Amino acid sequence: MFEVKVPATSANMGPGLDTLGVAFKLYNRFIVEEIETGLEILGCDEKYANSNNLVYSSMLKTFEKLEKVPKGIRLTFKTDIPVSGGLGSSATCILAGIAAANRICGDVLTKQEILNFACEIEGHSDNVTPALAGGMTVSIITKGVIHYNKIPISDGIKFCVLIPKLQLATEDSRAVLPQRVPLKDAVFNVGRVSMLIVALVNGDYEGVKLACKDKLHQPYRMGLIENYSEITSFVHDTKALGVFLSGAGPTIMVMLKKDDNSTEKKLNEFLKGLSGYWETLNLEIDQSGLEIIDL
Ligand code: HSE
Q1: How far away, in angstroms, is 11 Cα from ligand 1 center?
Q2: Domain spanning 2-150+286-294: which CATH class is it, in words?
Q3: The whole model's pTM is what?
Q4: By alpha-carbon position, which residue is closest to atom 8 of ligand 1?
Q5: Whether the Cβ atoms of residue 154 and residue 202 lie closer than 8 Å to each other
Q6: pLDDT value of residue 85
Q7: For residue 70, is the peptide bond before it cis, meaning its omega torsion is within 30 degrees of 0?
Q8: Nearest protein Cα to ligand 1, atom 6
Q9: Which end of the chain is more exposed for a tag (fewer CB within 10 A), N or C?
Q10: How far is the CA of 176 from the centre of ligand 1 (A)?
Q11: Which atom in ligand 1 lies closest to the alpha carbon of residue 126?
């Protein structure tokens, strides 16, 4: 029996659509036991307690890849990451399923192979990469292989996440994205994502503030999220370093200077006056990524 612990992640980080991501100290934990026969899934919503469950289906895909016929499986979920919230809950399920099946098969897949396979299942690399490796990452995919680097961002920055009651499936949030974008919008993002990475590493707060803008996905998605425009306009007029949609949303991420103690209070006051319900949470960066703990 063992536990797979996988961190929450925030993908895109503004201009880095499908490439940037960061892991946080907020976790989904899955306890995995081999049993004689059958499937038991405990601790999750009844609608997920069946063979379509993303952890289990990812385990089955891995067993198939490794040509192993599994015994029965009992999965116990201890999850803190909101489902369909923009904090990488699907990535935790996919990675946990692959890592669990791999452990049962004797750890035959390398970390790189686990990552490539997780990306193949999820369809993009920006959540699974930091969830597996920890920290902030930039990742690219070449012929099905993910190449990534960890970005050592300045420790003068903190993250405040704004979570609405709303759920938004990634599929729906991707459906509103255009297939083509104007060259000037692509250039806008290329400059900003490059600047954002360097500014985050160097602690260039003015650079972070200028670079944390996007024209490739957020303008198309904002209409799906109640209060998005009000919140981002409010945050732009504060001392915050940046505000962006976390992954495909609906969660919104605010980057602050570590010594900024006033913006969060103002933000909480502002959120109370909105039509929708928003909860705030301070998140620290997780540097470890996925861990397997023997029980
Ligand atoms: N990069 C993906 C998207 C993240 O924006 O659709 C989904 O979590």
Answers
A1: 6
A2: alpha beta
A3: 0.95
A4: 247
A5: yes
A6: 86
A7: no
A8: 248
A9: C
A10: 12
A11: 1
**Residue 84: pLDDT above 90?**
no
CA atoms within a 13 Å half-sphere pointing along the CA-CB vector of 77: 24
Percent of residues, the chain, with pLDDT higher than 90: 95
pLDDT at 186 > cutoff 90: yes
Which sequence spans correspond to the domains of the chain?
Answer: 2-150+286-294, 157-283
The end-to-end CA distance of the chain, in Å, is: 6
Residue 238 phi, psi dihedral angles, 5° rounding = -105, -170
DSSP state of 58: H
Name the nearest CA neighbour of 127 among 84, 77, 167, 164: 84
Q: Is 84 in the pocket of ligand 1 (CB under 6 A)?
A: no
Asked if residues 239 and 263 have their Cβ atoms less than 8 Å apart, the reply is: yes
Give the pair of three-digit tokens for residue 248.
């495909």
Please name the amino acid found at residue 34.
E
The pairing of strands 136-142 and 242-245 is unpaired
User: What digits encode the pLDDT tens for the residues 166-183?
Assistant: 888 989 999 999 999 999
Confidence of residue 6 (pLDDT cuts 50, 70, 90): very high
